[in-house]
Amino acid sequence: MSDKNKEICACNEDEVKFIFACSGGADVGHLSDRAARKMMADGCGKMFCLAGIGGKVPSILKTTKDADAILAIDGCPVDCAKKSLERVGITNFAHFQVTALDFEKGQTAIDDAAIVKVAEYGKQLLT
């Protein structure tokens, strides 16, 4: 990890930070997933199972509710990740939509520059 990423992702190693990403069929869902994986690779938090939230898996719900920080990344204004968390009573989390960063659903190339842009924005919200 570069020094820049260490500064952006600096956190107490005892903190539990989860990243939930839309991984929908649209390009912006794919982008949110790739950005979340980059954030995890950069040491900013752990990508966690959004399907487990939707499925109301008890151990996943408990672990998520005990987290120190949570970030939900949605690809588009449908807000599937946000709504999934809220439906199980998890409301204390940061959230953003990839489309709010000037990416257009159905028109977005998934490349390194796009992944970095979304990941960097997410890092600012999670720290």
What does this structure look like?
- By secondary structure, the protein is of the alpha/beta class.
- Helix content is 46%, strand content 13%.
- A four-stranded parallel β-sheet has the order 2-1-3-4, sandwiched between helices.
- Strand 3 (69-74), helix 5 and strand 4 (94-97) form a beta-alpha-beta unit.
- Helix 2 packs across helix 6 (112-126).
- The protein starts with a helix and ends with a helix.
Judged by helices, strands and strand pairing, the structural class is: alpha/beta
Write down the secondary-structure element order. Answer: HEHEHHEHEH
CATH C-level: Alpha Beta
Report how far apart the termini are. Answer: 16 Å
Q: What is the 3D shape?
A: globular
Characterize the largest beta sheet: strand count, sense, and whether it forms a barrel.
Answer: 4 strands, parallel
